Amino acid sequence: MRRLKFSNNDEMPAFGLGTWKSAEGDVYNAVKTAIKNGYRHIDCAAAYGNENEVGKALKEVIEEGVVKREDLWVTSKLWCNMHAKEDVIIALNKTLSDLQLEYLDLYLIHWPVAQKKEIPFVSKGEDFISLEELPNELTWQGMEKAVELGLTKHIGVSNFGPKALQDLIASAKIKPEMNQVESHPYFQQEDMLSFCKEHGIHVTAYSPLGSSDRPDKFKTENEPRLLQDPVIFEIAASKNVTPGQVLISWALHRGTAVIPKSVNPGRIAQNFEAQTVELSESDMNNIASLNKNHRYLSGEHWLYEGSSYTLESIWR
Ligand code: A2P
Hints:
alpha/beta, eight-stranded parallel sheet, two-stranded antiparallel ribbon, 11 helices, 15% strand, binds adenosine-2'-5'-diphosphate
């Protein structure tokens, strides 16, 4: 099992289970099956609306003696309506209560976007708070407080671009240790990987399989189909593995963490086995040539008339 080392020597299993889009009713079984198959890293978020079920599964596997809490790595994320400094601890305590945990291993700011507290999901421009009014740097002070209180061991961000990260680093007492971003062969993020390496920040790759189960509002017409890419297919066939396993192995070979989502027991097991799939230099070079700079999660779902957020400001 590949591991990413943090500055205090804590180690995060690079391979984990994604839970975005895992419906209530499915995610409980998925988490239990995953941990019984050897998964030790579970990626969660308040916005996924399923942390209470993840928590039920975690409590049971710990009580059944399948795994000890300290052998698990649990990540969660702060939703955008709780960005006020004093709200971070309130949101984190709710997540901890849902997950039935005393601490998280990693807590991330989910997006560099702030919305009004009473509006969990935006539907118009006035539901947002601009970053001039509520900068990420203030939210970060709440994240730092969470570490001081022992509610999370590590803190980081998700969906931040290099400029937003740079601004955060400039004012941070505790530097961000993770940026979780979309990354797969069609959106390789080489610049982001180099930037993060230079600043001692780890990267977690989300949507590593192309997230084809995204709700329609996150989709565009005629999207390229990553799991059906002929190069990925050919590499998979030559090793007698599946295209999904090649994509997971590729992310691990690049030194990122990777969190494929599945609620299907066969694919949960198959994805875990991807950790043993070796890719040669020539496989890696062939996959490197597939980059299309194609985001499956374009960020367009954030665009509303009357809000100050643009794609440029979000991905800056
Ligand atoms: P399912 O949950 O039924 O297994 P991503 O991790 O990029 O968000 O992709 C998740 C999507 O990929 C889900 O539709 C999931 O379906 C599917 N999936 C998960 N593992 C595999 C795999 N090994 N091969 C093909 N599809 C997979």
